[in-house]
Design brief:
506 residues, globular, disordered N terminus, 9% strand, single chain, Peptidase C39-like domain-containing protein, Ferritin
């Protein structure tokens, strides 16, 4: 969801800060004696500083003001839409529409008005964040301008008949001014980077509370109200970005299958069944497999369909089968979240890809899959079919094997995953990467341990404000990890406190 706010590219600051710090050190260490041999080098460095500080810190306060206007307009539209929706049930009363269908319609509209109201709350929060950032960036740009003027004042250095020590004193003063100017501009960029990061986090927290999807498909024979009733940002088969993938996949189906899909949606017995249908198409099902998937959904009751989301399972259903399968159990969980056909097979034993039924229980399939996936991730051939570094089974799942399994089977279809190693000096960077990935609908395997090594793997399944929601295969339950806990090496998850590596989309 966006209305004029795009966070500044982090590389804008990281590259500029690195260049200026290096330049500052060079200027400070420059030997000024004899002065006539070093004046040219100092002028050269001043020129480099002028070039490095040419662009003022982003974002421009004027752009932020424009963004605030956009969010204010969105707030006003959401306010108007909420007011209209609140009035609908009174106009479509029992005198107009009696019976269960009328009651269901009024209930759905009331639910929709509450969801739209969440947009207003987010808009108010975002607008306030941008207002504060506008004032802060005005001060930052003033500081940058003052520092840059000190640099530009020293682009030319000349003297007439100064004695050597007088020339040396002149260069010393000039260098001091240049150092001050570089420090001030560097400080301005550093302040801007911190301000933008804080604003970005605040905006993501605000948007995380919005109870509407980022995209509403227009194709597929289903009403907007039904779409919204079946969607949830954090839970269920249609959570996160699954809905956004549906329309693209629908367009790839044959006309006959599109008709079959519309009929299945029209005859669906519940919002949960519609959500499972949409998620199956979004997950890539087509052809005979899609037909079998739709037919088997008709044999399942609502509770069984809802339990295709593994996060609704009892804790003893989804615990790792031994001490070495925390990683592979997390990958099985990730695949169930991202692949509804696989989730159907895991939950019921019926495989829509083959049409065959597995007689084992869910618990047996979960355990066996955990062992099977670990064999794949630890073999000399990766789950993607490429050569990889083999890994001893007793040491669990290696990060590169986990990334390969996410690419091949367990991740969001069409995504490419890789390892993000936590920088001990800046763990917040990885936290942000995990949080962004989770908000975009990705499950994220996370390696945690002590200060010496990674010892356990959990799966980030969602966000709650500024905290991560985490499935822990050791207990089979879901817990939360806050930003402060992540950055302070205080996770407290299964006895492990430090984050080591996250498997995130590239």
């Amino acid at each position: 969801m966006s209305a004029g706010w795009v966070p500044t590219d982090p590389e804008f600051y990281s590259d500029r800060l690195a260049d200026l710090r290096s330049l500052l050190a060079t200027v400070q260490e420059l030997d000024l004696w004899p002065p006539w041999d070093t004046v040219g080098r100092l002028v050269e460095l001043v020129g480099q500083a002028a070039t490095a500080t040419m662009l003022p810190p982003d974002p421009d306060p004027a752009a932020l003001t424009s963004a605030r206007t956009g969010w204010r307009m969105l707030d006003q539209r959401a306010d108007s839409a909420t007011a209209d929706l609140v009035r609908v049930p009174f106009h479509v009363s029992t005198a107009v529409w009696e019976g269960g269908s009328g009651d269901s319609f009024r209930s759905s509209v009331t639910e929709l008005s509450g969801r739209v109201r969440s947009v207003r709350t987010a808009c108010d929060s975002v607008e306030g964040t941008l207002e504060g950032l506008t004032g802060d960036m005005t001060g930052v740009r003033d500081a940058h301008r003052a520092g840059r003027e000190k640099i530009l004042d020293n682009l030319e250095i000349s003297w007439s008949d100064l004695l050597p020590w007088e020339a040396y004193d002149l260069l010393t003063r000039r260098r001091g001014l240049v150092v001050d100017g570089v420090r001030e501009t560097l400080g301005a960029y550093e302040d801007a980077a911190e301000l933008v990061l804080a604003a970005d986090r605040a905006i993501r927290r605000a948007l995380d509370a919005v109870e509407l999807p980022t995209r509403l498909p227009t194709a597929g024979g289903i009403s907007t109200v039904d779409l919204l009733n079946g969607w949830d940002d954090d839970r269920g088969l249609l959570s996160g970005a699954a809905l956004a993938r549906y329309e693209d996949r629908f367009a790839e189906l044959s006309p006959g299958q599109q008709r079959e899909l519309r009929e299945a949606l029209a005859s669906a017995r519940s919002d949960a069944e519609r959500a499972a249908i949409l998620a199956g198409v979004g997950g890539g099902l087509a052809g005979a497999a899609l037909t079998r998937y739709l037919q088997h959904l008709r044999t399942m009751d609502r509770r069984d369909i809802e339990r295709m989301d593994p996060l609704t399972s009892p804790s003893d259903d989804v615990t790792q089968p031994d001490q070495t399968t925390c990683g592979s159990s997390s990958l099985v969980m990730a695949r169930m979240l991202n692949d509804p056909a696989y989730a159907m097979w895991m939950r019921t034993g019926y495989d829509p890809e083959t049409g065959e039924t597995d007689p084992r229980s869910f618990e047996e399939r979960f355990d066996d899959e955990s062992f099977r996936v670990k064999t794949l991730t630890n073999d000399a051939t990766s789950p993607e079919g490429e050569p990889q570094q083999p890994w001893p089974s007793f040491l669990g799942t290696p990060p590169w094997g986990a990334a390969s399994e996410m690419n091949a089977h367990a991740g969001v279809p069409g995504s490419e995953y890789g390892n993000d190693v936590v920088d001990p000096s800046d763990p917040g960077r990885t936290f942000d990467a995990v949080q962004r990935a989770s908000e975009d609908g990705h499950a994220v395997p996370l390696y945690i341990g002590d200060e010496w090594s990674p010892r356990h793997v959990v799966l980030v399944t969602g966000t709650d404000g500024d905290s991560l929601e985490v499935y822990d295969p050791a207990s089979g339950s879901t817990t939360t990890i806050s930003r402060d806990e992540f950055e302070g090496n205080d996770l407290g998850t299964s006895g492990w406190d430090q984050a080591w590596t996250a498997v995130v989309p590239r």
